[in-house]
Write a structure and sequence with these properties.
Blueprint: H1 2-10, E1 20-21, E2 48-53, E3 63-65, E4 68-78, H2 83-86, E5 116-125, E6 131-140, E7 158-159, E8 163-167, E9 173-177, E10 182-186, E11 204-206, E12 209-214, E13 221-226, E14 232-237, E15 248-251, E16 256-260, E17 264-268, E18 275-280, E19 291-292, E20 296-299, E21 309-315, E22 320-321, E23 334-341, E24 349-351, E25 354-358, E26 364-368, E27 375-380, E28 392-394, E29 397-401, E30 406-411, E31 418-423, E32 433-435, E33 438-442, E34 446-450
Parallel strand pairs: 18-22
Antiparallel strand pairs: 1-3, 2-34, 3-4, 4-5, 5-6, 7-8, 8-9, 9-10, 11-12, 12-13, 13-14, 15-16, 16-17, 17-18, 19-20, 20-21, 21-23, 24-25, 25-26, 26-27, 28-29, 29-30, 30-31, 32-33, 33-34
């Protein structure tokens, strides 16, 4: 298997390699791996093939092509003490999600401008965990603020087997070949985010075009770039503030659409940037990414405290403003919507005819009938910490893990049943990657390769 995969990479074939997890949430952006013989159990000393000690920090997920694993990190070199640190004052409440805004206070002071980081791209061997190459994309002072609980490396890379594309938010977009040679870089600007919380939307790749959603408090836009050169093919301004969801390629029965989140969701023509439809979603945070089948797109925004989440089912070939009217359960282009949905920060999961929603806190998971929008069940799993990573499905089971490294395994279907739990001793906010019969969990301290 490894010899075939390595050959596939060397000849730059981008469609015949089956063993890859090339972007955030996988090849089809759905968190449903096709790998076989994935381990059912793991833990310290059980099915841990190797670990890689991570220098620096990052909430980005690993991506895999063939026998190569790519991760990113920001590495603090010089950190200036903030005024409250100098005064010995507390640093605020606990941190929040990796793909969205932490709940702590923003950095209102300008001490962050004195800090020095280096932004790194690391390539590892999937079989052994050996470091193949490491490159410094940028070294210097941060251009924008971030919350102390988040990182400057929260966006997941994407690769096509020829190149790997790495986006560090307001600190640049970088393209490397598979051997670590820098091919091009792009500065998309530096803009303040909501409360100085930072960024989290990952780039996506479709038919040799790279799409980057740059939502912020100053000048939001969506850019389409030629993947081989970095040249802009088109750019559209967005009437949107800071959001964190990753763009989604929806291949439905009618056409292919590029869908973006925000307070208002929008669908664009991937080739031209022309707007197909828009949908005001409300909610509190635009963090979860959508899922779909050939007929419908399921998307919504996360709630927070006394603000409910939202959830919509959008019909293929919708046009114009499809926001449902007040008091209506449907609308033009809308199959159904729920204005009080238990949508959390983790992205949605559609598996075997059922839709699953995972709450950010409290261990609550919900199962919804995607045809009617009606609840199938809404249950709480005991002793679950905060959940920021996307759930996944495999072999008739639903998986999700919390920041304490505890993975809960449920039986897929209309009956709620907890099957087992696995644990790794680290802190986890990044979503899992799956390739070549192995799981890759990115913790704070190390990257774990789990396989039998």
């Amino acid at each position: 298997m490894f010899r075939v995969t390595a050959l596939c990479v060397s000849v730059l074939a981008v469609t015949s390699c089956a063993d890859h997890w090339n972007q955030f949430r996988g090849p089809d952006q759905d968190m449903i791996p096709t790998a076989r013989n994935l381990p059912a159990e793991w833990g310290e000393g059980t099915n841990v093939a190797w670990t890689y000690d991570i220098e620096g920090e990052g909430w980005s997920s690993p991506v895999v092509w063939g026998n190569r694993v790519f991760i990113t990190a920001d590495v603090p070199e010089e950190i200036a003490p903030a005024p409250e640190q100098e005064a010995g004052l507390p640093q605020g409440p606990p941190p929040g999600p990796p793909q969205g805004p932490p709940q702590g206070p923003p950095q209102d002071d300008q001490s962050f401008m004195k800090n020095v980081f280096r932004w790194e791209v690391i390539c590892l061997d999937l079989e052994t965990g050996r470091e193949i190459w490491k490159k410094v994309a940028r070294r210097g002072h941060p251009r924008v603020r971030k919350n102390p609980a988040t990182t400057y490396a929260s966006e997941t890379p994407v690769t096509d087997g020829k190149r790997v594309y790495v986006y560090f938010g307001m600190h640049g977009l970088y393209c490397y070949d598979m051997e670590g040679n820098l091919l091009w870089e792009k500065d998309l600007g530096a803009f303040e985010t909501q409360n100085g919380w930072g960024t989290g939307s990952s780039p996506v790749l479709h038919e040799e075009v790279l799409y980057v959603q740059v939502d912020n408090e100053e000048h939001s836009f969506l850019a389409a770039l030629d993947a081989s050169t970095g040249e802009e093919k088109w750019r559209v301004d967005r009437d949107e503030k800071t959001s964190y969801s990753t763009p989604y390629i929806w291949k439905n029965n009618i056409r292919t659409e590029l869908v973006t989140g925000g307070e208002t969701a929008r669908s664009y023509d991937p080739e031209t940037g022309e707007l197909h439809w828009e949908l005001f979603m409300a909610g509190r945070y635009s963090i979860p990414s959508p899922v779909s089948d050939g007929e419908y797109l399921y998307l919504g925004n996360a709630g927070f405290r006394d603000i409910p989440g939202t959830l919509f089912a959008v019909k293929a070939a919708a046009e114009g403003d499809i926001t449902p009217g007040e008091g209506s359960g449907t609308g033009p282009g809308i199959l159904w919507f729920n204005p009080d949905a238990p949508t959390g920060n983790p992205s949605l999961l559609l598996y075997d005819g059922l839709l699953y929603l995972l709450a950010s806190r409290g261990g609550e998971i919900s199962c919804i009938d995607p045809v009617t929008g009606e609840s199938v069940y809404r249950e709480k799993v005991d002793d679950v910490g905060a959940c920021w990573a996307s759930p996944w499905a495999h072999d008739g089971k639903i998986y999700f893990y919390d920041e304490k490294g505890v993975t809960t395994v449920l039986r897929a279907g209309k009956e709620f049943e907890v099957l087992t739990r696995n644990r790794l001793d680290d802190k986890f906010w990044a979503s899992v990657a799956v390739a070549d019969n192995a799981y890759l969990f990115r913790g704070v301290e190390r990257l774990y390769c789990i396989r039998e």
